[in-house]
Amino acid sequence: MLSFSIVPYCSIDFIHCNLSKVDVYAIQVDNETFAKVIDGKRVAKDIREEIAVEISKMKEEVGIVPGLAVILVGDRKDSATYVRNKKKACDSVGINSFEVRLAEDSTEEEVLNHISKFNDDPSVHGILVQLPLPSHMNEQNVLNAVCIEKDVDGFHPLNIGRLAMRGREPLFVPCTPKGCIELLHRYDIPIKGKRAVVIGRSNIVGMPAALLLQREDATVSIVHSRTKNPEEITRQADIIIAAVGQPNMVRGSWVKPGAVLIDVGINPVEDPESARGYRLVGDICYEEASKVASAITPVPGGVGPMTIAMLLSNTLLSAKRIHNLR
Asked: What is the pTM of this model?
């Protein structure tokens, strides 16, 4: 049997470089704040290059090309941008992309019919339904319809359930939290035995991020909108993952000296000096927190590029699994 590998880090298929390559990811220091910057854009670029090499090898030796199908409902500009970026990323690594665009007033049954076709299509190895869906659709019904073997978003309840259970392995891990953990791995930042705080408890990022940290033997707390004294809890953390969608919520006073900060937030704030009239900031106040933390992801250029890189990784993983390649 042919062997294809990006050197998995652990049993839930994180992509991890070998020890000689870890040295490439020396943390860069921001000269203005003395922050140590975790460069997600650079890591994502390297991961895409690794994936492209594997796909080229797979195509040449066994004639298989991974395929990703995306279903977009409605005309939200942000969703259309995300889908366009995913297609561009697929093209860059050699993944075949299939796209279905449906009107805002399409029925849930129409979406389910397209999912059923992609479930049965052997050239499709991953299916992604772009969220959010219109309010008249049952999001859970739609996500549940995706065959678990092609659930490259990792949102199927069986995948999340396996992630939550000791001794069980999910087929796929949700892309954004997987990208957060991959950044820690690539920069050789220890997780085992550390105290971690996840800010936010969404099904997409917060909860799976907490579960992944637990799997890495961190002691994990979740801070959410009902948490009393969140700053006191957060100040105890060695690792903070912020995914709450509130610009600059985490101030420097919330951060324990030497903590590692992973900022998932991407929030537009008004900026009259910008040509666009706004700029993007994270959930963590970079200017303050970077003076206290030992390492921090920037916004933009931190977690965002990793999310798409992990989607490509999951699609490749699915193709290898379906065709019994290792």
From this structure: 0.90
